[in-house]
C-alpha cells in the first residue's frame, strides 16, 4: 500500500536530510502557551516521580544534595502522567509526523522515556540504540523500519550524531573494525572524535529530532533538560493498543492504565522486566560524584591508567580521544 501521508510540518528538505544524513529537526508549530503548559506538566511529573519514588527510572550521576533523576521510564502511566502532558500529545500529533516522514501506515511506539536531568553538565557514551549488521549503516535512513524521536521542551544544544562518512564503512571512517566499534561503545569514559566528524543538534523548545538509531550518537547537555525520547517501529499489526490522547499505537507497557507489577520470574512480563529500576547511589558514591564534578580529582589516576592500555591506544590510532572533562563543570 502506497500511503503517501502528508503533514505540512514535514518538508521535502526534511525528507532529503533524513535520507542522506540520518537526522532532521522538525518544528512542531505549537503555540507558546501550549509549550509552557507542557513544561509545567513535565515539572509536575518529575516532582511526583521523586516524591512517590516511581520505580521505572534511570539515575546516571547521583549527587550529594540533589536527586539528579536522569530519566523517567513509562512516562504515560496514569500514576505520574497529568492532563498538561496529555494535551501536549493531542496537539503535537507525533504519529502524523512519523507517518509523513517514514511513509508508514501504523507507527508503533515501543520505547518512551522523559529525560529530566537537573542543572548539571552531562555526556554519555557513544552508542547505537539497536544492534544490526554494521554494513547496513550507509543504507538510506528512510528505508529503516525503526526511527527515534527526541522532543525538546527545554533548549538543549549538544546532542551528537556521527556523520555517515565517518561511520563504519564511510569513506572517512573512524571505525575500522567491529572491535573498534565495540570499544567505542563500552569504554569506561566518554570519547570524543575529531570535531568535524559529528553533527551537534541545537534542540529548541517545541522541536522534534528524528534520527536513525543505527548511527552512533551521544547524549550531551549543559543544563536542565526535559525531552521525550521515543522509539517507533513499522508495525503490520492492527490490534495494537493506543492511549486516547495519542495518534500512534503503543506496546502494552506504555498504555496509561498498565498496572505496574514487576515479577522478574514471569516470562509474561519480559518487556516490563527490561525497564531499568535504578536505585539512588550510596552516600559515599554521591559524595565522590559531587567532588569529582567540581574538581576532577577522582578521574586523574583512572584516566592515566586507561591511557596506558592497549584498547585506548587502538582507539587513539583511529581518531578517538578520552573526553577527560566530561560530566564536570569544565565540560566543553
Walkthrough of the structure:
This protein is of the alpha+beta class and 332 residues long. The chain has nine helices and 15 strands. It has helices at residues 12-21, 32-51, 83-92, 94-102, 178-186, 270-273, 283-295, 299-307, 310-317, and strands at 23-27, 57-58, 71-73, 107-115, 122-123, 146-152, 156-162, 191-192, 198-203, 207-211, 217-218, 220-221, 227-234, 249-250, 321-322. The strands form four sheets. Strands 1, 2, 3, 4, 6, 10, 13 and 14 form an eight-stranded mixed beta sheet that branches. Strands 9-7-11 form a three-stranded antiparallel beta sheet, with no helix packed on it. The protein has a two-stranded antiparallel sheet with strand order 5-12. α2 (32-51) packs across α3.
Brief descriptors of the model:
332 residues, alpha+beta, Jelly Rolls, eight-stranded mixed beta sheet, three-stranded antiparallel beta sheet, 9 helices, 15 strands, 19% strand, globular
Q: What's the SSE blueprint?
A:
Blueprint: H1 12-21, E1 23-27, H2 32-51, E2 57-58, E3 71-73, H3 83-92, H4 94-102, E4 107-115, E5 122-123, E6 146-152, E7 156-162, H5 178-186, E8 191-192, E9 198-203, E10 207-211, E11 217-218, E12 220-221, E13 227-234, E14 249-250, H6 270-273, H7 283-295, H8 299-307, H9 310-317, E15 321-322
Parallel strand pairs: 4-14
Antiparallel strand pairs: 1-10, 2-3, 3-4, 4-13, 5-12, 6-10, 6-13, 7-9, 7-11, 8-15
Amino acid at each position: 500500500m502506497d500511503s503517501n501521508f502528508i503533514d505540512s510540518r514535514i518538508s521535502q528538505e526534511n525528507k532529503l536530510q533524513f535520507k542522506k544524513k540520518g537526522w532532521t529537526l522538525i518544528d512542531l508549530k505549537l503555540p507558546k502557551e501550549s509549550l509552557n503548559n507542557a513544561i509545567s506538566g513535565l515539572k509536575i511529573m518529575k516532582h511526583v516521580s521523586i516524591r512517590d519514588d516511581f520505580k521505572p527510572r534511570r539515575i546516571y550521576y547521583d549527587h550529594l544534595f540533589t536527586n539528579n533523576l536522569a530519566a523517567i521510564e513509562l512516562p504515560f502511566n496514569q500514576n505520574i502522567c497529568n492532563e498538561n502532558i496529555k494535551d501536549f500529545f493531542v496537539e503535537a500529533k507525533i504519529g502524523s509526523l512519523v507517518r509523513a516522514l517514514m511513509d508508514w501506515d501504523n507507527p508503533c511506539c515501543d520505547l518512551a522515556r522523559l529525560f529530566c536531568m537537573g542543572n548539571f553538565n552531562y555526556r554519555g557514551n557513544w552508542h547505537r540504540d539497536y544492534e544490526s549488521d554494521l554494513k547496513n549503516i550507509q543504507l538510506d535512513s528512510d528505508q529503516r523500519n525503526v526511527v527515534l524521536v527526541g522532543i525538546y521542551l527545554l533548549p538543549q544544544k549538544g546532542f551528537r550524531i556521527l556523520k555517515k562518512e565517518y561511520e563504519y564503512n564511510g569513506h572517512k571512517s573512524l571505525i575500522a573494525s567491529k572491535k573498534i566499534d565495540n570499544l567505542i561503545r563500552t569504554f569506561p569514559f566518554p570519547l570524543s572524535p575529531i570535531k568535524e566528524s559529528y553533527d551537534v543538534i541545537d534542540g529548541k523548545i517545541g522541536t522534534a529530532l528524528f534520527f536513525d538509531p543505527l548511527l552512533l550518537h551521544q547524549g550531551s547537555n549543559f543544563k536542565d533538560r526535559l525531552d521525550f525520547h521515543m522509539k517507533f517501529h513499522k508495525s503490520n499489526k492492527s490490534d495494537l493498543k493506543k492511549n486516547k490522547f495519542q495518534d500512534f499505537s503503543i506496546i502494552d507497557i506504555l498504555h496509561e492504565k498498565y498496572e505496574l507489577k514487576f515479577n522478574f520470574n514471569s516470562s509474561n512480563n519480559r518487556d516490563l522486566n527490561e525497564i531499568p529500576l535504578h536505585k539512588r547511589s550510596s552516600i559515599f558514591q554521591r559524595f565522590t560524584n559531587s567532588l569529582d564534578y567540581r574538581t576532577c580529582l577522582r578521574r586523574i589516576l583512572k584516566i592515566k591508567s586507561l591511557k596506558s592500555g592497549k584498547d585506548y591506544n587502538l582507539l587513539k590510532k583511529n581518531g578517538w580521544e578520552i573526553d577527560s572533562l566530561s560530566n564536570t563543570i569544565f565540560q566543553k
